[in-house]
Structure to design on (357 residues):
């Protein structure tokens, strides 16, 4: 009997060890299973301590990867060979991913914390009924600038960026929709314009901005602006807020002719291997205390009403970052313009980048 017990304990030990090794190997390869969860998110877009807390609470190991544009995220998911359980695309990309059948419908019964989301951010046209996505952060695109470095300048319009005094002074977001959109808006056209003549006109106008463009960057704009190495940056509102904590001389405006209102939502892509764990992760991030900590860390605007009640007024009472509905009404949400039009936007952006170099 003693021998049988020893053999049994041995077998259990060896199998647990094997399982652990297999999990670690899968984790290293980016494959999820019930014990791992692969999260694919924008850079600088989560408090990693919260990821550790999720791991401790659930026993699930999180593999965390980042991307810097919706297009890069989509390509990775379309390519296959990955098992992303969670991704965080923006609205037009969610619509595109739904269209391409790349998303798994959410089980709302497993997301009781959804009740904390402000109704204003639920049931939006790109995903009616939030069948595939739930709000993570939202914001605008605007101009972040340093009045101390540019005492005589004011920025109320996109056209202010064409001022010859700003030579080699502006940082742009490395995003096709943002840059082409800025060209379109500066001419009074819609961010979702599909008229070829208008798009060519926008490119032509953007090409005349190149002497003022210092660099086209991703998250590096935070360091450059915080250290006064650039005076102006086109920025997503949350990044602007984050840099403004670091460098109090900076300020942020949304140009008067209009701009983009965007929503980044959590989704479960078809590549998922741990659908149960993905729901657990989403529900965890929707918890008001977790959402409040995450918001304090990343500085973006939270759609979680219960989290807002836990956050300092200094943060959530600032209308530059929590604009009321009357202000957001004049802004435009990117539409899914279809495969051909999105390729054209990317192509025009590439031409602009080549013209700059
Ligand atoms: N550093 C985090 C950036 C996240 C920004 N998402 C904005 C998407 C706008 N379409």
């Amino acid at each position: 009997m003693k021998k049988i017990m020893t053999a049994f304990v041995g077998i259990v030990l060896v199998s647990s060890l094997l399982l652990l090794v297999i999990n670690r190997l899968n984790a290293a390869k980016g494959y999820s299973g019930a014990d791992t969860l692969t999260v694919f998110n924008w850079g600088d877009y989560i408090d990693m301590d919260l990821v550790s807390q999720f791991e401790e609470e659930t026993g699930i190991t999180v593999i965390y990867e980042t991307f810097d544009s919706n297009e890069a995220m989509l390509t990775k998911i379309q390519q296959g060979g990955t098992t992303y359980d969670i991704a965080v695309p923006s609205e037009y990309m969610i619509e595109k991913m739904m269209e391409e059948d790349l998303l798994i419908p959410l089980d709302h019964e497993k997301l009781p914390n959804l009740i904390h989301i402000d109704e204003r951010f639920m049931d939006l046209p790109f995903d009616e009924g939030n069948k595939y996505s739930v709000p993570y952060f939202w914001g605008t695109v605007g101009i972040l600038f340093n009045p101390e470095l540019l005492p005589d300048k004011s920025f109320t319009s996109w056209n202010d960026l064409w001022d010859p005094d700003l030579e080699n002074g502006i940082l742009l977001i490395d995003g096709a929709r943002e840059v082409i959109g800025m060209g379109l808006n500066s001419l009074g056209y819609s961010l979702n314009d599909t008229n070829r003549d208008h798009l060519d006109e926008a490119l032509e106008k953007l090409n005349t901005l190149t002497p003022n463009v210092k660099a086209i960057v991703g998250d590096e704009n935070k360091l450059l602006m915080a250290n006064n190495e650039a005076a102006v940056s086109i920025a997503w509102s949350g990044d602007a807020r984050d840099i403004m904590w670091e460098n109090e001389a900076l300020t942020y405006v949304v140009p008067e002719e209009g701009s983009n209102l965007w929503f980044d939502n959590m989704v479960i892509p078809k590549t998922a291997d741990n659908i149960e764990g993905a729901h657990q992760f989403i529900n965890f991030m929707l918890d008001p205390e977790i959402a409040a900590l995450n918001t304090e860390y990343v500085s973006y605007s939270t759609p979680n009403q219960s989290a807002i009640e836990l956050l300092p007024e200094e943060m959530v009472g600032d209308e530059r970052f929590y604009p009321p509905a009357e202000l957001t009404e004049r802004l435009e949400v990117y539409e899914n313009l279809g495969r051909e039009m999105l390729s054209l936007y990317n192509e025009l952006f590439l031409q602009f980048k080549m013209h700059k170099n």
